[in-house]
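The data layer described in this paper is built around a simple, fixed record for each protein. Because each token names a local backbone shape, the row as a whole describes the fold. We quote a single record here, exactly as it is kept in our systems:

***
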Amino acid sequence: MKLKKRRLLAVVAALISVVLWLVMNPESYDAIFVPVENTGASEGASGSAVQDADAPLASEILELLEVKGRAPKTGYSRDEFYSGWPTVEGCNLRQRIIKREFGESAVLDGCYVVAGEFVEPYTGKLLKFTEKAEISKGIQIDHVVALSDAWQKGAQYMSAESRYAIATDPLNLLAVDAAANSQKSDGDAATWLPSNKAFRCQYVARQVSVKYKYGLWVTGAEKEAISKVLSVCPNERAVGVVEKSE
């Protein structure tokens, strides 16, 4: 009973801290609420159409990540990170991510996206939706760095507040095809990459960026797989992070 109370207090504290952070930094979410690009990424081209020229290269950030084996998965559950999508500026975070990807095509009913289309990043296919039910069935919000993977690579040793941030950071969230997301499961880059090769550079760059931002590590096989992807797009830059000073 005491353990449940401590967990509840930890979750409440995390929620309060996130709300306060958003109030003090409202532009932080908006800065990442722009449609995902998934073009390029072949013959050395960048994997995203628009990048921050001042951001460090993804390959440089990869070299800063600690390389270790997986920790045990013991104790993992999604509730260790979050329980339900938070409300951001009046709208559910899931709906905000879907609206981000659908862009100007998004048809809204209040906060809910009920229709629209987008080029789905994991498959590269143009997906069109005319009903809310179709979106609910066909679209899932993927954690680019899967929560189970994060748990086994450092997150289990972090505070509840830090884990909550990993789970709800728009940098780590993509609206994707439900079937592709199920296929990915909790795999890292060594075990799963998008079938859409044009998006792979941006995909691993986001993984590297999330892991760097939150101090997560990579396995040797994972680092090798990411390096192989980035070798065809050496100019791919990290996303949403600033290199820490020494």
